[in-house]
Amino acid sequence: MFFANVIFLLLLNDLFLLAAPGVTWLIRLTAFQGVLLGSLLFDMDHALLGAAVLGIKGILLPVLLARTYKHIGRREKTRHLNHAIAVLMGVLGLVFSLWLENRMDLMPGLFPDLLFPAAITTLFCGLILVVGRATALSQVIGYLVAENGIFLLGAPLMAAGAIWFELALLLDIFVAVFVMGIAIGHIGEKFESMDTARFRSLRD
Length: 204
Hints:
Elements lengths: L1 H18 L3 H21 L3 H26 L10 H21 L11 H18 L3 H19 L7 H29 L14
Helix pairs in contact: 1-2, 1-4, 1-5, 2-3, 2-6, 3-7, 4-5, 5-6, 6-7
């Protein structure tokens, strides 16, 4: 029952991410998603990895993103997709993932109920954020959400030895986002806008 409730909250969180009005809400919802992922891993008896996910994805990365956003001090004014279209695409992604689960010849018992469609939907919503948002920081958040979906797909395959590989991967992701946060901060100091579409106007 606990597992199903967390999966339901994760799917709702995915749709709320697509409807988020600004970067502040994106950061909060990403932090909540990290907490949900950690809770799922605890329920799947991966306590060490669950604690690492909770600490990195639920606390450290959101704090880093919030500090970067505060340093930039700008709000997202433009989007490539409006809220309604983004949410509709997320719902269609959920429907597709449910259909895909029934079509794929998965090993019986490999994925707990609804974990596979939740992972695919999270991955799909992350890609929508990357494509549909205009600012660099919100696209970084989309990258993190997409990675969370990939992480969920690999969760049932974890063995005792694989946990250390996943922990190393988490640290790599943390370092990558840390570097991106620094880069975005420097870009914010040099340019008036963080809208990535404006890079098209750059010339050699």
